[in-house]
Write a structure and sequence with these properties.
CATH topology: Ubiquitin-like (UB roll)
CATH superfamily: Beta-grasp domain
CATH architecture: Roll
CATH class: Alpha Beta
Order of helices and strands: EEHEHEE
Strand content: 15-25%
Number of strands: 5
Strand order of the largest sheet: 2-1-5-3-4
Helix content: 10-25%
Distance between the termini: 16 Å
């Protein structure tokens, strides 16, 4: 499963028009700096086009997403440490899913729904308690 959920309200997003960077900090505290090229969006087909999940998966950064990125769970919960103001507003549906997330902060977002507009660089933490310990090999 992947893509978008046709049963939820689609909030307003603005795709970037310029390159910007996202620094993903994984569960091992390793930094993965990605240059996002608006001409290549969407990258992976998971979550909203240009979402943090789309960007992460398109650059081989592991980010759990049990529902395939359709805003039906909270496994892609991330914390946007820097640049959250450049992201679209969360919808009621996203907030409902985040209510079930462990370790919720004021900067928590679902990676499948969070779409940066490219006006700022981002630092995004993938919490270590939010990882799937049983993984298949990368195909």
């Amino acid at each position: 499963m992947g893509g978008q959920n046709p049963y939820i309200a689609d909030g307003e997003t603005h795709l970037p028009t310029q390159k910007y960077t996202v620094c993903f900090i994984d569960e091992g505290q390793h930094e993965h700096v990605i240059e996002v090229d608006p001409a290549k969006i969407p990258y992976s087909g998971h979550g909203k086009p240009g979402s943090l999940l789309d960007i992460a998966l398109g650059h081989d950064i592991e980010l759990d997403h049990a529902c395939g990125g359709v805003c039906a769970c909270a496994t892609c919960h991330v914390v946007v440490r820097e640049g959250v103001d450049s992201c679209n507003e969360s919808t009621d549906d996203e907030e409902d899913q985040l209510d079930a997330a462990y370790g919720l902060t004021s900067q928590s977002r679902l990676a499948c729904q969070c779409v940066p507009d490219g006006s700022q660089n981002l630092v995004v933490e993938i919490p270590n308690w939010n990882r799937n310990l049983a993984r298949e090999e990368h195909h």
